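From the methods appendix. Each design record in this collection lists the discretized structure first, followed by the designed amino acid sequence. Records were kept in a plain field format so they could be parsed without special tools. The example shown here is representative of the layout used throughout.

RECORD:
C-ALPHA CELLS (463 positions):
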C-alpha cells in the first residue's frame, strides 16, 4: 500500500473518531441552527430570513427616532434617507426610483429593554450603529430586527450654532411651533395646554434665540395679535438684562386668535427698520407673508427681508387641483404654487417701494427643494442658499426621511453678499419627548423647541 493510501486511511479513521465523539452527526455537515450568519441590509434581506438570528455586516443609521417616550421602536436605514423631492424632480422616473429605494431601506429596530440613548437622554437622527444582532421579523411593510445586545453606537453630538462666514448681518428664520403666550389661548388645539407648558416652551425658545444671537429674527407660528410678539420681545430683553435692545415690528394686528402669523424681532443696536412693514398680495392668510426692509447701522446698507409660511401638506379638505397628485408634492401644491407666484409679483413692487433690489426670501414654504414652489423662485433667478452651502443637511424629518421645508433664497443682486446659510440641527433630529408638552426629560435648553430647525443666513451688506 503506497503512502497516499495510508494517509487516506488515517484521514478517514480520524473522521470516524470525530463522528463518534459528536454523537453520530456527519462531520462534513455544519450545524446551521447554531450559526448566526452575517447579512447586508437591505440587499440580503428576504422573507427567508424571518424568524432567524442575524448579524448585520453594514453600519446602520437612525432615520426615525423616539416620539413621546424613550422606549419603543425606532427606524434604521443603511444611510440617512432624503425625501425624494428634496433631491429629484417630482413625478419623474427618478422620483419613483428614489421612493421605492427609500421604502425598501427602512428597518424597524425593536430594542426591548436595551437602552439606546446617550448621557443626554437623546438618540438623534443620523446616529450610526454597528454590530447589530437580533431576530428578523416583519412589522407592517418593513422588516424588523429585535436586537439581543446593545449595538456599538457612534457619537452623534449636538451641534453648535453653525458658522455662516464673515457677515455684518446675521438673520435667523425660526418656526416656533405655535407660540401662544395669551392665557386665553392655552388649552386649545394648538400651543401650550396651560401656563406650566407655556413656561417650558418659552424657556426653550429664549435659549435658542440667545444662542443664535441674530440681528434679525424672522418668525413664523406665533399667535396672531400683538400680545405674543410683545411678550417674546420683553422676555428676550429680560434674558439679556436690558431694556429696549430688542423690538418687534408692529404688523398692525391687535386681535388675538387661534391662528398664527409671521413677525420680525430685531436688535436695535445693529439694525433699524426702513420705511413700512408690508404684507403681500394674494388672499391666503396675509400675515403669513410679510416683508420689512432693514438698514444696517454700521454702513447704511439695506436688505428686504421676507418671511413666509406656505399652506401645509396636511388636511382633509383638498379639492380639485389641491388634491394629492401622487407626484411626491402631497396636497395643496397648487395653492403653494400660487403663493410663490404671488410672492414674486409682490417682491417686484417691494423693490420699487423700498428702492432696493436685495431680497432674502425666508420661511417654512412647506415644499422640498425640488418641488414646484421652490423652483418657481430659482427659475426666476433666486439662489437656493441652503443647497449652495449645506446641501446635505436638513430642516425637517418626516417618516424617516430628511429634507428642507425651510429655505433661504436670495435675489440675484443679494447672492454675492451672502456669506453662508445653514440649519442649526437642534430640533428635527431630536426625539419629540424633549418638546415642551412633555415633562420627563424637560431641560431649559434649545433642543426640540420646535419640530423645524432654525435657518441662519449670514450677509455681508455693502453700500
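DESIGN:
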Amino acid at each position: 500500500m503506497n503512502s497516499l493510501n495510508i494517509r487516506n486511511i488515517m484521514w478517514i479513521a480520524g473522521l470516524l473518531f470525530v463522528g463518534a465523539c459528536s454523537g453520530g452527526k456527519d462531520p462534513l455537515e455544519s450545524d446551521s441552527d447554531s450559526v448566526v450568519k452575517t447579512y447586508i441590509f437591505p440587499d440580503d434581506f428576504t422573507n427567508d430570513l424571518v424568524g432567524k438570528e442575524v448579524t448585520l455586516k453594514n453600519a446602520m443609521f437612525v432615520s426615525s427616532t423616539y416620539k413621546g417616550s424613550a422606549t419603543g421602536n425606532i427606524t434604521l436605514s443603511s444611510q440617512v434617507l432624503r425625501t425624494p423631492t428634496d433631491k429629484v424632480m417630482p413625478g419623474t422616473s427618478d422620483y419613483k426610483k428614489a421612493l421605492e429605494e427609500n421604502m425598501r431601506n427602512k428597518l424597524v429596530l425593536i430594542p426591548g429593554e436595551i437602552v439606546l440613548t446617550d448621557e443626554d437622554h437623546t438618540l438623534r437622527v443620523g446616529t450610526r450603529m454597528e454590530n447589530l444582532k437580533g431576530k428578523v421579523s416583519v412589522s407592517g411593510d418593513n422588516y424588523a430586527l429585535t436586537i439581543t445586545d446593545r449595538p456599538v453606537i457612534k457619537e452623534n453630538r449636538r451641534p453648535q450654532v453653525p458658522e455662516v462666514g464673515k457677515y455684518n448681518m446675521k438673520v435667523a428664520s425660526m418656526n416656533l411651533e405655535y407660540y401662544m403666550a395669551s392665557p386665553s389661548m392655552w388649552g386649545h388645539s394648538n400651543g401650550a395646554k396651560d401656563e406650566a407648558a407655556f413656561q417650558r416652551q418659552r424657556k426653550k425658545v429664549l435659549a435658542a434665540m440667545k444662542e443664535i444671537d441674530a440681528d434679525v429674527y424672522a418668525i413664523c407660528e406665533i399667535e396672531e395679535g400683538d400680545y405674543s410678539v410683545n411678550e417674546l420681545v420683553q422676555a428676550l430683553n429680560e434674558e439679556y438684562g436690558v431694556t429696549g435692545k430688542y423690538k418687534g415690528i408692529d404688523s398692525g394686528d391687535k386681535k388675538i386668535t387661534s391662528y398664527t402669523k409671521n413677525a420680525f424681532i430685531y436688535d436695535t443696536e445693529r439694525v433699524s427698520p426702513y420705511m413700512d412693514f408690508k404684507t403681500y398680495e394674494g388672499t391666503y392668510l396675509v400675515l403669513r407673508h410679510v416683508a420689512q426692509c432693514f438698514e444696517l447701522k454700521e454702513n447704511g446698507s439695506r436688505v428686504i427681508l421676507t418671511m413666509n409660511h406656505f399652506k401645509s401638506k396636511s388636511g382633509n379638505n383638498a379639492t380639485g387641483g389641491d388634491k394629492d397628485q401622487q407626484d411626491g408634492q402631497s396636497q395643496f401644491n397648487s395653492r403653494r404654487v400660487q403663493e410663490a407666484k404671488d410672492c414674486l409679483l409682490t417682491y417686484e413692487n417691494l423693490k420699487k417701494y423700498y428702492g432696493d433690489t436685495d431680497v432674502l426670501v425666508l420661511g417654512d414654504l412647506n415644499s422640498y427643494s425640488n418641488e414646484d414652489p421652490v423652483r418657481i423662485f430659482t427659475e426666476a433667478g433666486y439662489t437656493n442658499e441652503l443647497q449652495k452651502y449645506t446641501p446635505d443637511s436638513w430642516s425637517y424629518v418626516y417618516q424617516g426621511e430628511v429634507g428642507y421645508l425651510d429655505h433661504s433664497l436670495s435675489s440675484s443682486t443679494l447672492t454675492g453678499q451672502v456669506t453662508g446659510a445653514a440649519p442649526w440641527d437642534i430640533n428635527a433630529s431630536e426625539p419629540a419627548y424633549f418638546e415642551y408638552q412633555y415633562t420627563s426629560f424637560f431641560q431649559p435648553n434649545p433642543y426640540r423647541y420646535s419640530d423645524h430647525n432654525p435657518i441662519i443666513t449670514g450677509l455681508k451688506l455693502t453700500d
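APPENDIX NOTE: The chain has three domains: 1-29, 36-153, 169-459.
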